[in-house]
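Re: the multi-chain job from yesterday

Posting the exact lines I submitted so nobody has to dig through the queue logs.
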Amino acid sequence: MAVLIVTETSKGKFNKASLEAISYGAQVASMLSTTASLLSIGSGSDDELAKAGEYGVATVLKADHAKLSHFDPQLFSKLILAAMEKTGADVLIMSHDRTGKAVAPRISAVLQAGLISGAVELPVTSGGFSVKKNVFSGKAFAEYSITTAKKIITLLPNSVPVKLTGTAATVSAFVEGIDAFSSVLKIEEKIHQHDGEIPLPGADVVVSAGRGLKGPENWGMVEDLAKTLSAATACSRPVADIGWRPHHEHVGQTGIAIRPNLYIAIGISGAIQHLAGVNGSKVIVVINKDPEAPFFKAADYGVVGDAFEIVPKLNEAFRKFKEQNS
Amino acid sequence: MKILVCISQVPDTTSKIAFTDNNTRFNEDKVQFIVNPYDEWYALVRALELKESLGGTVTIITVGPLAVEPIIRKALAIGADDAVRIDMDPQDAFSTAKSIADYARGKGFELILAGKETIDFNGSEVGGMIAGLLDLPFISLASKLDISNGSAVAEIDIEGGVEVTTSPLPCVISAAKGMAEARIPNMRGIMAARTKNIEVISSDVAPLVQVKAFTLPAPKSAVKLIDPSNMDQLVELLHSEAKVI
Ligand SMILES: Cc1cc2nc3c(=O)[nH]c(=O)nc-3n(C[C@H](O)[C@H](O)[C@H](O)COP(=O)(O)OP(=O)(O)OC[C@H]3O[C@@H](n4cnc5c(N)ncnc54)[C@H](O)[C@@H]3O)c2cc1C
Ligand SMILES: Nc1ncnc2c1ncn2[C@@H]1O[C@H](COP(=O)(O)O)[C@@H](O)[C@H]1O
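And the result, structure tokens for all chains:
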């Protein structure tokens, strides 16, 4: 028995979600009294990849190949299946990100290995093997048991804290499984990110605003606050639908689901479909002029009042705090 | 163009989430069921638009017992040509995907569309599994889809940009927000749906995972209200009490 963790590097580095998956996989291996290896897809210096050892894996297989520079689920699956074979892995751990969501189900189907996607806790291994995951868009959890010998888990980012345990890992190159396969997908990236913009999906702090802001011309104070906090910006669905903000900022049931440490909601009523995308946040601050706004029921801290007065003051207070603590 | 769209039944987004049978089953009492929004608003509507411009047929498929027929009729009313119901309680993503793949194999579908995820089980699993079982290319989370020169061209939102992916047909694509604008069925559609054919087939695939128990999150403690004139206090609490800054 062995555990294989699969993550990607971005610009040669592990991101936070990858480190969480690595640490999670290492902890699963130690629960099963076995070892964990990492298959790292993408470029990255051996020194950076060896850091995975500090999160508990002993060996790193580095898959750095021109064929892998774009995401083709079919190709990635071939590589991962070859790495599972090579390491004798019967447990596969990935992050519940775009890659994990597309590849883990494919491998599950090919191997007929039970898959739990979006796990929020470490598995329970006494008397079987079960894992807790989010269901009903964060309104409940389900504990699933996997009955097959081979098991696959994708881990929801920002759910299980990392644990530092070991020292550096050994790194070796691995690109088996993909030589004979030529990708049929043609992929082209069009990046339009502005410098210094914080991507929403993995952000620790998110400042979000809704229809209460009356119009797109009023988002300056939201962006200022986000800048002070090094936060990403988000919005409610109607705001994206009427074109006040770009679609990729829309969070909720039909937008993206996020789990930041801090979510600040400004002029958002807190409809159940909005909450579905943000109720995994550790701490929620709500600013709304209506004391009856449903969002206050889901909030940790609330400020009842006019956003146009409160947000600049809050920004000022954060700025003062930053100065005193830097 | 022969298109298959996978649709699933989910509780309405405002449903009360509660469980029965020792917390092993979702309590369906008084729950209103709808077509999963990603399946209806994006996958199905885009399939219909493609059919309108290129010709062909749109077949919907769902795995579920007789009780899911109302959502099948809804999808037929929006404009699907015909429907397949695989008469089985969908126990997990694998048994669902395998039943659909077994049906679709060899039938000449050029495009198989699924939603990004179901809003009840939030798996994002079924589409990728169907692609794996049929060994087809898979484009996941597409927010735009076109057919050009006999290939599928999809756009996927990625961090800080978009990725444009072109795949030969047949392929499997999962639909995210943006692929189409929701359509409301009109009277003619609703009338026509009554006589459209629903083929019922049986399937028997064992699940790979099982729900042991559902739990509800611990109730949130009451909100702490801060005086609007005292934002320094809020910052202090976020620092020393909540420890998030
Ligand atoms: C199937 C379905 C899926 C959906 N999916 C999503 C989703 O993914 N994400 C999503 O967000 N919504 C979603 N919705 C829509 C959702 O139901 C709500 O309509 C939406 O979230 C409301 O957006 P809002 O809070 O910005 O606007 P409103 O409901 O109009 O609320 C504006 C709020 O601003 C407050 N306000 C006004 N002026 C001020 C001021 N000066 N200062 C402070 N506060 C002020 C008001 O008191 C009010 O609470 C979905 C709906 C359906 C039916
Ligand atoms: N019971 C089902 N019948 C048909 N299609 C389904 C079923 N369950 C899920 N799907 C399809 O698979 C997609 C992803 O579902 P899931 O993997 O459950 O998140 C859905 O959006 C549907 O398109």
